[in-house]
Known about the structure:
The structure holds two protein chains of two kinds.
Chain A: H1 17-54, H2 59-73, H3 87-119, H4 122-135, E1 142-145, H5 149-161, E2 165-169, H6 175-181, E3 185-188, H7 194-199, E4 207-210, H8 215-228, E5 236-240, H9 244-253, E6 257-259, H10 261-274, H11 279-289, E7 297-302, H12 319-323, E8 326-331, E9 337-339, E10 352-357, H13 359-369
Parallel strand pairs in A: 1-2, 1-4, 2-3, 4-5, 5-6
Antiparallel strand pairs in A: 7-10, 8-9, 8-10
Chain B: H1 4-26, H2 29-45, H3 54-77, H4 81-116
Helix pairs in contact in B: 1-2, 1-4, 2-3, 3-4
Amino acid sequence: MEKQKTPHYGKVKPINYRYIYEEKFYDVLGQLKLPLMVVIFVSTVGVLLFMIVNNKTDGESVVNYFFHTVISISTIGYTEGYGTDNLTLNRLITSIYILFAFPAGYMYGLVKTIQVLTTSNLGKIYKYWRMYKEMENIKDHFIITPFNEITKEIMNDFKKRNIPFVLIEPDKRKKEEIENFNPVYFILDEPHKRAVLLGAFIERARGIITAFEENTQDLAVIVTARLIMPDRNNFYIFATATTEGSAEKMKLLGANEVIIPQQTIGKRIVSLVLHPPSPLVSNFLNKIAFGEKMDIDITEVHIDENSWVAGKALKDIHLRKNTGTTVVAIVKPNGKMDIAPSGESVIKSGYTLLLLGKPENIEKAKTYLNKPQEVSP
Amino acid sequence: MINWGKVWSDFFIFLALTSNVGFIFSHDPYQLVVAIGVNLIATVLKFGAKKILSAELLATALVADLHLIPAAFLYFSQTHTDLAIGLAIGAAVANVISIVLLFIEMVMEYRKQEDSY
Lengths: 377, 117
C-alpha cells in the first residue's frame, strides 16, 4: 500500500545542506576565475613573445622561455632564460613585458589567488560538507531543538547510548558554542520550517524533541512535525511547556508527551521530602525512573488472548527461573494496580505485567510470556 | 541584452576549439602554445559555474588540457610528433563535446526561464 501523505506536504523541497556547502566551494572557485585567467594569459603571451623575438621554436628554447616568463612574473629572476644572442633586444622586450606582467600577473593574479584561498575558510567548508554528507545516511534518529541546557543534557545522554540525533538551532549566534559542544550533526536554521525538518530527514526519524523556553516556538515545531509525520505511534514528539494549558494544547496538536519542567522539579523535591533521603533506595529508583542506569530496566508487557500464561497463577509460570525477571506489578484493564503481587495472583488476558530486570532478560521475557497456548511447556 | 560575462566565457570556449584545430592542421609550435594557453583559460572560466552541466563542462575542459600538455612535451621534445598531433585531435574532440554541452545547457536554461514566468 502506498504511504499516505498529508496534503500539507505539498511542494516543499527539503533543504539540501550538503549542497549549500558545495555551492560555497564553487563560489570560492568562481572567485579564482579572473586572477587565474590573468596569470595564464600573461604567461602564454610571455612565451609567445620570446618565441617570436628569437624566432626559435625548438623544445629547449621554449622551456627556457617559459622558465624566463615564470621567474619574471614571480619577481624571482634567477637568470636570463634566453641565450646570449640578441641580448639587448631580449632585455628590451623583457623590460616592457615585466612592466605589464608584474602588476597584472603578480600583483593581481597571484596575490589575489592566494588571498582568496587564505580568506575563504576552505577547511571549514569541507568540515561542514563532510558532516552533512555523513548525515545523509542517518536513520532512526531524533531531531532535537534548540540548543540549551535541557537539550545539552539530552544530547550528552544520547551520545553515551549511541542514539543518533540531529540538532537544529535557530540562533546563528550560537554557532561557536555548538561547535565547541560538538554534537555529531547540527543545522543552524528555523526548526518550524518544513523544508528544514525534511532536510534533517524527519521522514526517517524516530521522533523530535523540542524544548524551547517559549511555548509558541514549541507549538510551531510540534504542528509542523506532526503535519509531516501524522502517525503518533511511529513518530514521537516530546516537548516542554511552561504551563498546564500549553501542555494540554501541545498534546492535542500532536505531542506524545509534554513535560512541564517546573512542575517536574517541584514534584521531585516533594518526593525527596516525603521519602527521607536513603541514598541507596532513592538512587536506585532514580536510576530506573530516569533511565540513568543502563543495565536495569522496567517495562510493561501486555498479555494477549492466546498467550499461554493467561489463566495461570504467577508462581506457575516460573518467570524468574526461566527469564531472570521479576513482576513488580500487575495492571488490570480497569487501571487498578496490584503492586508486588503474590505468587497466587492469577494472570488473565488483557492484563499488563510490569517487569524489572536486565534489558536482555526483559526481551526474553516478552517472547516467553506471549508464546501461543499450544507451545506451552 | 547581451550578457557580456557569457560572451567572454563562450569566446574562450570556442577559441579553445578553433586554436586546437588550427594546430592539428598547421603543426605549428606557436599555435600549440596559443592552444594550451586558451584551453587553460577556458578551463578556469568553467570553474564555479552553478549550472546544470557545469561538472560535465569542467570535465571536458580538463580532458582537453590533459591531452594538450603531454602533446606539448612530445612535440617540443620531437620524439613522438605524430602522437602529439593525435593527442591534439583528442583534445579537439573533447572541445567539440564541450561546445555541444554548452548548447544543451543554453536550451535548458531558456526552458527554465520560460517555466518561471
